[in-house]
Design a protein that fits this description.
This protein has 462 residues and is of the alpha/beta class. The protein contains 17 helices and eleven strands. It has a single domain, classed as Alpha-Beta Complex (Amidase signature (AS) enzymes), CATH 3.90.1300.10. Strands 4-6-5-10-11-9-7-8 form an eight-stranded mixed β-sheet, with helices on both faces. A three-stranded mixed β-sheet has the order 1-3-2. 57% of the residues are buried.
C-alpha cells in the first residue's frame, strides 16, 4: 500500500481508481490511517467509519473489476463535517447536547455522494452548533491549523479545512452561515466554495439559520470543487464543463470589480499587497478590471445578525431553558439575543434582503461578472487571542474574522475563497471571488485559471 495515496486530489484520485492504477481499498485505507494519526494530532477527527468504509471500498473495487461504474466518484474516500446526517449513525453537531443523537434519515447531499460512488470515512471536527468562525469548541478542544498549531484553523467547518489542507483526504463538505466554509478555507489555504443560497440541498444537515445556511465543497483545487458541485446539485457535468473550459483566452470576455471602501479600510498592508498582486494576475489572464466602492454594510450585517440569532434561538429555545450549562458561554451568548427580538425586526430583516442585495450588486459589482474582496482582512488569528483575555477583546478578535464574509450570506450570493499567498509568518492569505446568483460556473472557471497561473494551491503544510 502506498501511504501517499491520501495526498492525491479528488479528480486525480477518481481518475486513478477508474483507470485501475489505484484501488479504492488502498486509497481508503491510506486516508483512514492518515485521519487516525495526523488527523487526530490536529484534532480534525470526531469519528471514523473504518469497517463500513473498507467494506464499501471492496465493493467498489469488485464493481470496477466487473466493468461497472458506480459514478463519477467511484471508490473515492472523503470525510465530512459532523452535522451531515446518516441514518442510524450519531451526528453530534460538535456539542454535548447531541452527543447521542442518532440521525433518523440521511442528508440529501450524503445520499448524492453515495449514489456517485464516494466512500464515507466519517465525521470531522466542527465548532459547537456551527457557531464559531475560528474552530473553537470548548467540549472537544480547538482544531489546530496545520500551518501553525498556535493559530486558528477557521470554523465552523474546521475539521474539513484541516483535513483537506494537510492532504489527509482529497475533499470534504462544509456548511456556511456567515463564512464557515470560507473561514477554514482561507485560514488553512484550500479552495472553498459557498454556493448561492438554496442551490445545494440542506435537508438532513443540522441547521443553524435556515435563511442563511448553505452546503459547499472544500477541496485542493477549483477543478475538484467543480466535480463535487456536479454531484451535490445533480447537474451532470455542468460545472466540470464550465471549469474545464478554462484554456487560453477563455477569460477575455469577463470583467472583475476590485472593491474598495469597507472591504479595504481595515485590510492589513501585507494582505492588501497580496490582493493587488492577485488582481494583476487576473488582469493578465485577459479579464477587464474595474474599481468600485461597495455600499455601507451596516444593514447587511444587521440583517444577517437578526436572521441568524432569531432562527438559531427558535431551534435552541428548549435546550437553552433546560440545558443552559451544556453550552459554551461564548456560544450561548451568541444565540440568546435571538429570544428578545420582536417579530417585526425579523420580518424587516427578511423584507429588506432583496433591496440590500440589489444595492450591493449595483455599487460593488456594477456591470462586472465578479467582485474581488478580502477573505480575512486581518489575517489568521491565534487561538489565544480568540479565547483568552477579557470578553470584549475576544469578541473583537472573533468579529474581525467575519468582516468580509458575513454579509455575503445575507445577500445569498456565491463566493469562493482562493489562496493567493502567504504572510511573513507563513500563514495563508486568500481573497474572495463573489459572483452573481447562480454564477458558480463562472467562479469556478476564473478560479481555475488563477490557480493554474499561480500554483499557490499546490503548496501544503506537511
Amino acid at each position: 500500500m502506498d501511504d501517499s495515496l491520501h495526498a492525491l486530489g479528488l479528480t486525480e484520485m477518481a481518475t486513478a481508481i477508474a483507470e485501475g492504477s489505484v484501488t479504492s481499498v488502498a486509497a481508503t485505507q491510506a486516508c483512514l490511517d492518515a485521519l487516525d494519526t495526523t488527523g487526530r494530532r490536529f484534532n480534525a477527527v470526531v469519528s471514523l467509519r473504518r469497517d463500513q468504509a473498507l467494506e464499501a471500498a471492496r465493493a467498489a473495487d469488485q464493481a470496477r473489476s466487473q466493468g461497472r461504474s458506480l459514478g463519477p466518484l467511484h471508490g473515492v474516500p472523503m470525510a465530512h463535517k459532523d452535522l451531515f446526517y446518516r441514518k442510524g449513525e450519531i451526528s453530534t453537531g460538535g456539542t454535548l447536547i447531541r452527543k447521542d443523537f442518532v440521525a433518523p434519515f440521511t442528508a440529501t447531499v450524503i445520499e448524492r455522494l453515495d449514489q456517485a460512488g464516494a466512500i464515507d470515512l466519517g465525521r470531522l471536527h466542527m465548532a459547537e452548533f456551527a457557531m464559531s468562525p475560528t474552530g473553537y469548541n470548548i467540549h472537544h478542544g480547538h482544531g489546530l491549523n496545520p500551518w501553525s498549531v498556535a493559530h486558528c484553523p477557521g470554523g465552523s467547518s474546521s475539521g474539513s479545512g484541516i483535513a483537506v489542507a494537510a492532504r489527509l483526504i482529497p475533499a470534504a463538505l462544509g456548511t456556511d452561515t456567515g463564512g464557515s466554509i470560507r473561514h477554514p478555507a482561507a485560514m488553512c489555504g484550500v479552495f472553498g466554495l459557498k454556493p448561492t443560497w438554496g442551490l445545494v440541498p440542506t435537508t438532513g444537515v443540522m441547521p443553524l439559520s435556515h435563511s442563511l445556511d448553505v452546503v459547499g465543497p472544500m477541496t485542493r483545487s477549483p477543478e475538484d470543487a467543480a466535480l463535487l458541485m456536479d454531484v451535490l446539485t445533480a447537474r451532470g457535468t455542468y460545472y466540470r464543463d464550465r471549469c474545464s473550459g478554462s484554456g487560453k483566452g477563455s477569460a477575455k470576455a469577463l470583467k472583475l470589480a476590485v472593491v474598495g471602501g469597507h472591504y479595504r479600510a481595515q485590510t492589513r498592508p501585507d494582505i492588501e499587497a497580496a490582493l493587488v498582486d492577485a488582481a494583476k494576475v487576473i488582469a493578465e489572464l485577459g479579464v477587464v478590471i474595474t474599481h468600485t466602492t461597495g455600499p455601507d454594510l451596516a444593514l447587511a450585517h444587521a440583517g444577517a445578525h437578526v436572521l441568524m440569532t432569531v432562527e438559531a434561538a427558535t431551534l435552541h429555545r428548549h435546550w437553552l431553558e433546560t440545558r443552559p450549562g451544556d453550552y459554551a458561554p461564548q456560544v450561548r451568548g451568541r444565540i440568546e439575543p435571538g429570544l428578545t427580538y420582536p417579530a417585526t425586526r425579523y420580518v424587516e430583516a427578511l423584507a429588506m434582503r432583496a433591496d440590500v442585495t440589489r444595492a450591493w450588486l449595483d455599487q460593488a459589482m456594477g456591470d462586472a461578472d465578479f467582485a474581488l474582496i478580502p477573505a480575512l482582512a486581518q489575517g489568521v488569528p491565534t487561538i489565544a487571542e480568540t479565547t483568552d483575555g477579557d470578553p470584549a477583546s475576544v469578541a473583537a478578535a472573533i468579529a474581525r474574522c467575519t468582516l468580509s464574509t458575513r454579509a455575503i450570506n445575507y445577500l445569498g450570493l456565491p463566493s469562493a475563497s482562493i489562496l493567493c499567498g502567504f504572510d511573513p509568518s507563513g500563514l495563508p492569505i486568500a481573497f474572495q471571488l463573489v459572483g452573481r446568483p447562480y454564477s458558480e460556473g463562472l467562479i469556478l472557471r476564473l478560479s481555475a485559471l488563477y490557480s493554474q497561473a499561480t500554483a499557490w494551491n499546490l503548496k501544503h503544510p506537511l
